[in-house]
Amino acid sequence: MNYLKKIFVYAIPYKRYIYLNIFFNILYALFGALSFVVLMPMLNILFNEERAIIDKKPEFEGLSGLGSYLSDSFNYAVQEYAQSDSLKSLTLVIVMVIIVFLLKNIFNYLALYFGTFLRNGILKDLRNSLYKKTVDLPMSFFSEQRKGDIMARVAGDVNEVQNSFLSVLEIIVREPLSVIFSIGIMLTVSAKLTVFVFVFVPTAGLIISLIAKKLRQQSADVQKEQGVSLSTLEETLNGLKIIKGFNAEGVFNTKFTDSTQRSFIFSNRMMNRQNIATPLSELLGIITIACLLWYGGRMVLIDKSLVGSSFIAFMGLAYNILTPIKALSKANNNVQRGNAAASRVLEIIEAESPIKDSPNAKTKTDFTTGVKIENISFKYEDDLVLKNFSIDVEKGKTIALVGQSGSGKSTIANLVTRFYDVNDGKITIDGNNVKDLTKKSLRALMGLVTQDSILFNDTVKNNILIGKPGASDEDVLKALKIANAWEFVKDLPKGIDTNVGDAGSKLSGGQKQRLSIARAVLKNPPIMILDEATSALDTESERLVQVALENMMKNRTSIVIAHRLSTIQNADEIIVMQKGEIVEQGTHSGLLAKKGMYKKLVEMQSFE
User: Fold this and answer.
1) Alpha helices (runs of H) in 170-307, residue ranges in sequence order
2) The pTM of the whole model exceeds 0.85
3) What is the SS3 assignment for 24?
4) What is the mean pLDDT of residues 44-64?
5) CA atoms within 13 A on the CB side of 60
6) Mean pLDDT, residues 351-378
């Protein structure tokens, strides 16, 4: 339960439901035990037990005889009310039995009712925390994690944690109290017979607990494999066009079925271990009852130390102990599975983010002088991607980065926006190290247009409003026109209220990119970062967007990662990169005159 203890912090906002659940569970356990007590007078009447008749009103003789006093007082009250009328006595007892069982089940319902609010509240808050942490974690975290595994944790593992919470309450309150109340009443009926029960019940409990020990690891294996299956499914859906185009259906089908086969094996092991707990506990229960029948039968038939009606009630109470013990066994299995799930959930919630605001981080709202990248070095894993890299981007200037694939261009965009932190050197904005600024205020100064046109399954309007929530429709239309996107948006079935589909699947590549640019235009940031923003556009779309980009970059500081010549020929300075270092820099015409690497790239028309 180590991991589940950490999850209990999520129960604090719902502590009133915990108290109410515990309160009604106590009443349920009490009336569950009393339900057998009220049967005893009825059995006395039916079996005409003369030894059970109370001749005079019982007297209280101290706490040691409290049980006998209460039992005898109840029997005496029934006798007095009925005045030797057996049928009247039987009717009274039956009514009381119905009332006790009715109250028992009402309290059971109320305990479950308030437990539902507790479980679902924890489920909601856990998912919210998990999602918030997933969004807050740096990009580097997700390069090492499968998306499907994270989805499995948010969906399946959180559900497992939720289910285990009611089991914890059962283990702590409900079932133990049912056992305690039943044993208390059993002691008043026959202390000798109760001691006999204690010999068998702990043995049964020990055997059942041994079965549950391995459930946690087996449950973790199942949940991990479910994450692999979901990840394979997610990759398949994202790359369906490639899979079909390369006739790779068989490869991915094998990959998925291998995962489901492993899940099949793990699930069988776990569920078979679970399944054996119920029949085994029932067998042990029957053996215990059989031994009780033999020993208690001797007390009734031979020793005459116990009346038959009391023995039958005692047997009912003994069974009332076995039922919660079996429930405890089942609850313990749930807790073991929940503990394994909680460890996977907490692995994300407790993950340390290396990219976080410093304690004295400043909020910066303006941009006055420029961006400086000073002697930075950076590596994703082992090899340096950037080596002692330095550039000075003055306010209002456009700096273009060009070079072959893998030269480190996009890494600059990731570092300036602080998706990653530099290993050496520093990046400053108006003289402030980006590490000393809050991430939120830093990114508020920047607009980002990436090579991949990332749109969400929502309307055109809501996709653009991500740049500036609360903007008016008029502002949205203006941004669309600047990005040359209005020409196709106006022809959509519902205009700006048209849903673009999953990842913008209802639009062409050029249309999606223009909406991405419109989103950046609406945000209207002082610093613009274009990461190969026109590489996905056809020639016609590129012409439409290029004018918009140039208008957008006027009087704005821009860092342009270039793929095509048309994007950068008007840049104030072009930086030519190779293997993380600067090999040339200057204007378009100046670099052409040098007849170096830049000229070769221009001739190949392959700016990567």
Assistant:
1) 175-189, 191-212, 215-238, 240-245, 249-301
2) no
3) helix
4) 55
5) 4
6) 87
Kindly tell me the number of DSSP H helices and DSSP E strands found in the chain.
24, 10
Q: Is the pLDDT of residue 194 over 70?
A: yes
Of the candidates 178, 212, 216, 194, which has an alpha carbon nearest to the alpha carbon of residue 27?
Answer: 178
Q: Output the pLDDT for position 372.
A: 92
Fold match between 2-349 and 364-445+531-537+559-608? no
Model confidence at 99: pLDDT above 80:
yes
Give every CB contact of residue 254 below 8 A, 6+ residues apart in sequence: none
Strands 573-578, 581-586: pairing kind: antiparallel
> Does the pLDDT value for residue 24 go beyond 80?
yes
Angstrom distance (rounded) from CA 320 to CA 298: 22
Q: How far apart are CA 77 and CA 71, in angstroms?
A: 10
Tokens of 17: 């439901």
Handedness of CA 253, 254, 258, 261 (dihedral sign): positive
The Cα 537–Cα 532 span in angstroms is 10
Q: Which of 344-348, 424-428, 461-465 has the lowest mean pLDDT?
A: 344-348
Residue 1 to residues 5, 58, 300, Cα–Cα distance (Å): 6, 48, 45
Q: Characterize the bridge pairing of strands 424-429 and 432-433.
A: antiparallel
Measured on CA atoms in the order 375, 381, 384, 389, is the torsion positive or negative? Answer: negative
Structural domain spans, the chain: 2-349, 364-445+531-537+559-608
Q: How many whole angstroms separate alpha carbon 511 and alpha carbon 485?
A: 7
Q: Check pLDDT > 60 for residue 538.
A: yes
> How far apart are alpha carbons 441 and 434 in whole angstroms?
10
* Segment 438-490, tens digit of pLDDT: 888 888 888 888 777 778 888 989 888 887 888 898 989 988 888 888 888 88
Q: Is the pLDDT of residue 115 over 50?
A: yes
Judge: domain 364-445+531-537+559-608, CATH 3.10.450.50. Answer: no
Distances (CA, A) of 450 to 13, 330, 512, 516: 41, 52, 11, 8
Which phi and psi (to 5°) does residue 83 adopt? Answer: 50, 55
Indicate whether 106 pLDDT > 90.
yes
CATH of 2-349, one of 3.40.50.360, 3.40.50.1000, 1.20.1560.10, 3.40.50.300: 1.20.1560.10
Helix 308-349 and helix 249-301: axis angle, to 10°? 150
Query: Quick one: 321 exposed, middle or buried, by C-beta within 10 A (0-12, 13-18, 19+)?
Result: buried
In the prediction, which pLDDT does 484 show?
81
Distance CA 85, CA 605 (A): 109
Q: Which amino acid is at 150?
A: I
Over 60: is that where the pLDDT of 10 sits?
yes
